[in-house]
C-alpha cells in the first residue's frame, strides 16, 4: 500500500529487460550508441516530426537544462506559484540559467490562469532595464495538483507567451499520465499546442532513471550538448539511457503503463469518494489524488501500513474547505500499483470512517 | 578489439544482476533506499572510517560537485595542465564552483611536480585582492597518461596544499585500477595520504552509471546534499545507484574487475613492446597504454577493425620522441577485454611491423 | 519641480568640494588612500564599534554584494514582496549569490509582517533537500512605500531570522532619511537591532556615487574584498569614494542633508493633504510621499512642468482605495529640493482641485 | 617620484572642472543625462561611426562586462598568458560569463603570437562536446609588458579569430597611450582592425573613475544594458560618468594627456638607459617601462622615496637575462608626472650606479 510517489518503485519489467539486453558488447560512449539512436527515432514518431532529443537521468536535470536553454541569466521564467521547478528543485533552474528569476503566476487548481499571465506580463514593459526580462513560460502537465491542461488551454497560454517573445517549456514529468487521460496525441499536447521545449518524463512511469529533453525547434538546442556536458548530465555509457527510453516507447509501452497507473487512481478515487467524510481536493484525471481524510481514517490507514504524504495547506485553490478534523493528503499510483493495493486501502479507509 | 575506452562496454554481470534484483518492491526515493544504505556501509569498510558518500551517475558530476564543495567562486583549483577536469568536462568545474579558475601545474607524465606546485603557489601570496584565492588541489589517480602517484607522492602534494589551507581532491575515475596496481589499501591511497574529497569511480570499472563523491571530513559536506539536488544529481529511484555500488564493492568485486583490466593491459604492453618499432610513451601501470605505433602498424590495426584513439601530441613529458612515421595512440582495457582480443591485436600489429 | 527621485540631483556642495580637494597628489590605489581610511574611521564613530566597511559606487552593488556575502547559491533570501532587491535590480542578487532565490514575504505598507515571516519560514523545515535553504533576511529602511520600521520592529524581525540561523541585511539606500525621522542613533537602528550587514546609502542623500557595505561582524566579511574585486566594484582611484563618504559623514553633514529632505517632504505632505481630493497612500515619515491625485490635479501639475512617477497599483496594503478618477504617484524630495519648489507644486495642485 | 601606477593620481583638472560644472540641476538618472549623451556623441566622432557605448566606473567591470556580452558560460576566452583579465581581476571574467574558461596563449613581450593562436585553436575542433567552445579573443593594447600591437598585427589576430567565429575584444585600459605612440586613428586601432568590443579606458589617463564599453556592432549589445544593471554597474547619477568622459574626449584632451604621459616615459627611458647597468626588458612605447635595475640602484631609489613595483619574474619573453644582482621593476608615468620627477629619478639612479 505505497501511495507515496510514483518513484517508489523500480522499472517496468520490459524496461528492465531492455537494460539487460543492452549490456553486452562495445558501443560508442556519450549517447552515440545504437540504443539512443533508436530512442530518438521513436521520439520522432511519437511527436510526428524530427525532434532534437537529449537523455538525462533526472527530472530536475531535465527541467533545469531545458530552462537554461531558453532563459538568459537576466531573464524571467513565468510559472505557477506551486510549480515543482519553483519549490522542489533546490534552485536548480536558478543554477542552470546562471541566476534567472522564477516568477509565480496565479491560477486555481495548480493551473496558470491566462488572465493572470497577461496581467503579470503587462508589468514587464519591454526594455525596462531595472527589471528581469521575460524569457520563458513553464507549464506543468500534469500539474502539482494532479490536474490537467487541455490542449486548448495550453495553446492559449503558449500564444500569450509567444506574443511577448517568450519560449514555452512543459514540465512533463507525468506527460504520459496526462496524455492518456486527455486522449489526444503527444504532438497535439505539446508541439502543436505551442510547446517549444518539453521535459518528457519516463522515470515515474516505468523507467529506472531516464528523462528526455525534447526541442521541437532545433535552433533552440544549438548549444544544448555543451550545456548538458558542462552540467555532468552526459552519461558515458549512454546505452543506459537509450535502452530505457527505447523500450519505454516501443509498441506504446509507455501509454500502457500510464493507463494502468491512471486506472488505479480512478479506482482509488471511486472507492474513496464513497467513504463517508472523504472528499477530493482537485478533479483527479491522471495518477495523483489529493483528498481530505478525516483524522481517524488517516490514522487507521497509517496503522494499516499505508504510505503517502500529508500535503501542506498551500492554498492551491482547492474545491473544498478543510475541516479542523481533516488531513489533506496526496495519493499517487503507478504502473506497479495493484488492484489489491487499492482495494486494501479503500477497505481500511472505509473501516475507520 | 575495442580499446577506445573503458566506458565502451556495459556493466559487469554481477552489477547488472544486482540492478535486476533491486527492481522489485517499493523503496524510499532520493537515496534513502536500502541499497544505498548498504553501499554506504561498504564504503565505510573500504575506507576504514565513517565517510559521507553521495552517489551520482557521471564522472563529470562527481568531479565538479566535489570541487564545488571545496572551492568558492573566487577560488583557484590547482591541477595538472592535462587534467581531465581542465580539458575534458566542458567547463563543469567552473559551473559547479560558480566561476572558480583552474590553474594548470607542470609535471612530467601527467603527474604534478611538487616543486612546480610550491612555485606556483608562491605566486599567490595570501590576501592579494586582485588574484583568485588558492582553494583546492585536484590530483588524478590514475593520471591522464595512465601513470600513477604512489602514496608518498600523494602525501607530499597534499601536505603542500594543506600547508596553504587548500583542500585536496582526488579524481579517482580509475581509482580501482590504480589501487590494485599500487597494492596498498584504499584508505592508504586516499584518506591517509591527505585526500579530503574523493571522486570514486565505478562506471569505467564495471558499473553502468555510478560514481561516489566521498568526504572523509563530514564538515566539508555540510551543504553537499543541496549542491547535488540543485545540480539535478539526486536520482529519484536512488536504488539504481545504490544497487550498483553495493554490488560493485561487495566481496571485493571491484578489485577483481580492476585486476582483470590491468592484467589485459599488461599483456597488451608485453605483446606490443615486442613488436618492432612500437614504443610506449609512459610507464604503464593501470589499464591505459600510450604507445607510438609506426604508421603501417596503425593502418593494419585499423583495417583489422581495432578501435582506439589517436592521442594528440600535447607534450605530456613523454619517455620518447615521436618519429615522423609514428602515431601516438591510447589503448584502454577493461574488465570485459578478453585475452583473445589482446592476442588478436598484438598479432595484427606484429603482422604489419 | 523635480520630485521624480532623489537621484536626479548632483552632490551636495560640501561633498563636491571634498572631491575637488582630494584630487591632488599621489595616493595608494584600491581603497588604501587616506580618504577611505578617514571615512572608515568616521563609520566606526557613527556605528559605535569597529566595522568592516567597503565603498562601492551603486546601491545595486551595495545590496547584491552584501547578500552575496551571506547567502550561498542554494540559499533563500527572504524580503518583502515589493522589495527593491526583488523587483528593481534586474536580478543582481541572483547574480551575486550565484543563483539564490528571493522569496517574497507579506506585510502591509511595504513592511514585512513578523507573523508572515514566521509562517513562511515554517514552510522550510531544516534539512529538506528539495528546497532552497533559508539563509538571509533583507529589510528595507526606508521601505519602498516610504514607511519605516521602528527599532523594535527591526529587532523583532531580526530575532525571528537569527533563531533560524539567518543573517540579517538592511537595504539602507535611504538610511539617513529613516534615521532622522525616527530619531535614534545609527547603531540603534542597525547593529543594536540585530542587523548583520548594512547597505548604507549616501548617493541619494548628497553623494555623487557612493555607498558603503558595512559588516558589524567581521567574520562575515572574510571573503568580501575578493567578492568586490571580482564584481568589478573596487575603484582604482579609491579616493573618489573615500572622499565622498568622509565629507558626507563629517560633522553630521549626512544628517543635516536628510533633515532637509525630510522637512521638504513634510511641507509637501502638509500642503497636499489640504488640497481637496488629494489623499496619502502611506504614512509619510521620510522623504517619499505616495499620494492619490485626482486626474485634473495630476494633469495640471504635469502641465506646470512637475516631474514625478506614476506608481503602479501593486497592492501595497495602502491606507486608501483608489478611485477611478485617481492617479497614484510617488513624490520624492532631496536635500536639494527648495521650499519654493514645494510651494509651487502645492500651489499648482491647489489651483486645479 | 611616484611611478607605481597611473592610477595613483587624481583626475586631470579639466575633467575635474567638468564634474564640478555638471553638478547643478536635475538630470534624468541611469545614463539618460545630457552629459552622457554628449559623451556618446563624442565617441561616435572618435570612432567614426555610430557606436553603442556604456559607461562604468572600473576597468575590471569594463573588461568583464564586455567579455560577458560575447562569451557564453560554456565558452572559452583566448588571451595572452599574462593578460590582466587572466591574472589580476580575481576571476571577474569568470563571474560575468557565468563560468567561461580563459585560455592562455603564448607570445613574447606580452603579445599573442599569431601562430600560437592558430595552433591552440586547432586543438578545439568544432563541436567537440567535452571541450569548452572557442567564443572570444581578448587583446590588451597596451600589453602587460608595455608593448604595443600595431594595427596590422591586431588585424591579423582578429582575422584568425573571426575565421573561427570568435568575437574580438580589446582591453584598452591604456588605449590612449597606445594610440598616440602608434600614431593612427582610434578607429584604425580598433574597429577597422577587427575589434568588436572595446574596453576604452579613461581612468588611468585623466578621469577619476570612468571607462567605456564600446560595441561597434550594436547586435552584440542587445542585452548589455541588463547585464550592466544586474552587475550593479549602472550609476544612478550617471552624469558623474558622462561628464568625465565628455571632458576627457572634448578637444582631444585625452590625446594630450596620453602624449604627456608617454613623453615622460620616453624621458625616463632615455635617462635610465644611460645609467650603467640599467637595462630595459621590453621595447617601451607607451607609458610603462620595465627595467632591470642593479640592486644598489634600486636601493638608492627606494631610499630617495621613489615608488614603483618590483615585477615578478614571470617569463614574459624579455629582451634580457636577469643577473643575480638585478631587480626587475615596472615604472609607470601618467599625465601628472612632472619632468622634475623624471629628472630626480634618473639622477638618483645615476648617483648609485
Automatic annotation (TrEMBL), chains A, B, C, D:
> Which of UniProt's keywords are assigned here?
Lyase, Pyridoxal phosphate
Source taxon at top rank:
Bacteria
GO-annotated biological processes: L-threonine catabolic process
What Pfam families does the entry give?
Beta_elim_lyase
Q: Which residues form the Aromatic amino acid beta-eliminating lyase/threonine aldolase domain?
A: 2-280
Q: What is its EC number?
A: 4.1.2.48
Which GO-annotated molecular functions does the record name?
Answer: L-allo-threonine aldolase activity
Which family does the similarity line name? Belongs to the threonine aldolase family.
Q: What does this protein do?
A: Catalyzes the cleavage of L-allo-threonine and L-threonine to glycine and acetaldehyde.
Subunit composition? Homotetramer.
Q: What is this protein called?
A: L-threonine aldolase
Amino acid at each position: 500500500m505505497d501511495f507515496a510517489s510514483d518513484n517508489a518503485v523500480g522499472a517496468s519489467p520490459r524496461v528492465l529487460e531492455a537494460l539487460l539486453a543492452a549490456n553486452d558488447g562495445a558501443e560508442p560512449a556519450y549517447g552515440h550508441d545504437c540504443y539512443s539512436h533508436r530512442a530518438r527515432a521513436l521520439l520522432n514518431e511519437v511527436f510526428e516530426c524530427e525532434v532534437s532529443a537529449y537523455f538525462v537521468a533526472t527530472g530536475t536535470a531535465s527541467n533545469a537544462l531545458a530552462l537554461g536553454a531558453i532563459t538568459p541569466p537576466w531573464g524571467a521564467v513565468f510559472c505557477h506559484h506551486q510549480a515543482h521547478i519553483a519549490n522542489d528543485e533546490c534552485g536548480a533552474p536558478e543554477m542552470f540559467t546562471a541566476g534567472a528569476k522564477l516568477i509565480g503566476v496565479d491560477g486555481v487548481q495548480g493551473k496558470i490562469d491566462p488572465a493572470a499571465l497577461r496581467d503579470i506580463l503587462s508589468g514587464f514593459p519591454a526594455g525596462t532595464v531595472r527589471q528581469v526580462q521575460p524569457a520563458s513560460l513553464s507549464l506543468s502537465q500534469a500539474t502539482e495538483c494532479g490536474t490537467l491542461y487541455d490542449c486548448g488551454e495550453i495553446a492559449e497560454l503558449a500564444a500569450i507567451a509567444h506574443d511577448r517573445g517568450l519560449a514555452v517549456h512543459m514540465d512533463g514529468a507525468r506527460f504520459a499520465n496526462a496524455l492518456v487521460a486527455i486522449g489526444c496525441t503527444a504532438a497535439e499536447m505539446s508541439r502543436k499546442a505551442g510547446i517549444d521545449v518539453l521535459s518528457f518524463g519516463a522515470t515515474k512511469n516505468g523507467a529506472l532513471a531516464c528523462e528526455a529533453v525534447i526541442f521541437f525547434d532545433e535552433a533552440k538546442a544549438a548549444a544544448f550538448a555543451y550545456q548538458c556536458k558542462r552540467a555532468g548530465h552526459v552519461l558515458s555509457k549512454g546505452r543506459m539511457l537509450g535502452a530505457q527510453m527505447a523500450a519505454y516507447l516501443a509498441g506504446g509501452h509507455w501509454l500502457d503503463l500510464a493507463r494502468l497507473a491512471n486506472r488505479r487512481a480512478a479506482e482509488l478515487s471511486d472507492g474513496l469518494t464513497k467513504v463517508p467524510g472523504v472528499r477530493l481536493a482537485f478533479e483527479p484525471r491522471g495518477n495523483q489524488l489529493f483528498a481530505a481524510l478525516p483524522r481517524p481514517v488517516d490514522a487507521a490507514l497509517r496503522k494499516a501500513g499505508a504510505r503517502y504524504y500529508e500535503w501542506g495547506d498551500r492554498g492551491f485553490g482547492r474545491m473544498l474547505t478543510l475541516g479542523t478534523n481533516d488531513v489533506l493528503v496526496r495519493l499517487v499510483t503507478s504502473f506497479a500499483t495493484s488492484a489489491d493495493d487499492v482495494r486494501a486501502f479503500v477497505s481500511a479507509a472505509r473501516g475507520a470512517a
